[in-house]
Amino acid sequence: MTYEAAASFEPATTSGSATVLERSAVIDLDAVRHNVRHFVAIASPANVMAVVKADAYGHGAVQVARAALDAGARWLGVAHISEALALRAAGIDAPLLAWLHTTESNFQAAVAAGVDIGISGWELDAVVAAAREQERPARIHLKVDTGLGRNGATIDQWDELVGSAMEYQDEGLLRVVGIFSHLAVADEPHRLETDEQLAAFREAIAVAEDAGVDTEVRHLANTPATLSRPDTHFDLVRVGLGLYGLSPFEGQNSAELGLRPAMTVRTLVSNCKRVPEGQGVSYGLNYRTPRPSTLGLIPLGYADGVPRVATGGPVQIGEITYPVVGRIAMDQMVIDLGGVGPAEAGLRGAEAIMFGDGTNGGPTADDWAAAAGTNNYEIVTRISPRVPRIYANEAPEADRP
Question: What is the arithmetic mean of pLDDT over 89-105?
């Protein structure tokens, strides 16, 4: 990303609505559909699970889930049972897996709603108790830890977990629907650990099959493995980041992977003013203007999800991109517009893009991730509810004129 100062400026205009929101995250659901179709083609004959945890990485779980299913995803995935129940309450009845639980998780509601439940070990008895209470067999996916070191039964515990699950299945209390694991370094294709995890997963499947498990789905691949490791696809791939059009690979952008970023975060310039050389900017006065200049005030801050440490992050106004200067505050940040002269009054109310799809060199979530020293997952997911979500192309394509 390169930045340049402008001697003059034509403010952006927004049309098509009588009311322009002060700030919003615009979610292009056609971009989501495009990305899903891309992964469906790559993964075939395996099916695609659209991972919509964390409110669809900040994009809106219900809206994204519907768009993903419209475009060919066959499964949905979330972390928490509460997220799954919200999708069911919205009328979404697709196969749905939740995999991260605590002792207070509502397994009864999950069983009643037909939500598949990921099982790492301790949850099994609690899920069986819920199945007895609901008088309905639970649908479970057994998770094996092949090397990530988070959830999942260890290889040493796997035999016992499979055996216990099959005993309960024989009693009619559950159905072992799937076996799954999670890759640790698939976003670094040169790493040998992915081969080691794949081998461990194959061994775990063999153990389960020898015990009589007959699954609907075996799933291991995340977004980077779906893109780079077809040998990890099995019956189902879990696509999270790629669903939203973002690249999991360092050195490869979305366009190079055939993906379209779905989220654009934008606002309006709230103020601008001429200042002399040496003017300090924001808390700490860590930046001073190197010349007489115009400062633009952007009404987004860390309460909106902008990383406080991301000084230097890009903001686009018109066709010019400017870096944030000074410390990012709770509600606002500042850009140095340079010597825009008498045009400063016209800057107020101009549209300012924090990040979008990168068209014409505009700023992206990747640029903000670089400024903050984090990844693009965090940038989109942390955009707070204070920034309203606006959905473009919400209706299925077949229903549009």
Answer: 98
Helix H or strand E segment including 146: none
Tokens of residue 298, six digits:
């952007």
Average pLDDT over residues 73-94: 98
What pLDDT does residue 375 have?
96
4-44 pLDDT, tens per residue? 333 333 333 333 344 679 999 999 999 999 999 999 999 99
Q: Coil, strand, or helix at residue 157?
A: helix
Q: Residue type at 95? A: P
DSSP 312: T
- HSE-CB of 199 using CA atoms within 13 angstroms: 5
Structure tokens at 362: 């505009």
Binding-site members for substrate are 150, 330
Among the listed residues 54, 61, 76, the one whose alpha carbon sits nearest the alpha carbon of residue 381: 54
Specify the CATH number for 29-245; select among 3.40.630.30, 3.40.50.300, 3.20.20.10, 1.20.1250.20: 3.20.20.10
Active site residue 283: yes
pTM score above 0.85: yes
Cβ atoms within 10 Å, residue 339: 14
Establish whether 287 is a catalytic residue.
Answer: no
What DSSP state is assigned to residue 385? Answer: T
- Residue 268 has φ and ψ, to the nearest 5°, of -120, 140
Of the pLDDT bands very low, low, confident and very high (cuts 50, 70, 90), residue 266 is: very high
- What homologous superfamily is domain 262-392 in, according to CATH? Lyase, Ornithine Decarboxylase; Chain A, domain 1 (2.40.37.10)
- Give the confidence band of 346 by pLDDT, cuts at 50, 70, 90: confident
Q: Helix, strand or coil for residue 250?
A: coil
273, 283, 287, 377: which one is catalytic?
A: 283
Tokens linked to 14:
């927004």
Mean pLDDT of 240-258: 96
Does residue 84 have a pLDDT over 90?
A: yes
Which residues, 6+ apart, have CB-to-CB distance to 185 below 8 Å? 191, 193, 194
Burial of 88 (0-12, 13-18, 19+ CB in 10 A): middle
Distance CA 71, CA 32 (A): 8
Q: What is the percent of the chain where pLDDT is above 90?
A: 89
Average pLDDT score, the chain: 92
| Nearest in space to 220 (alpha carbons), one of 184, 246, 250, 252 | 184
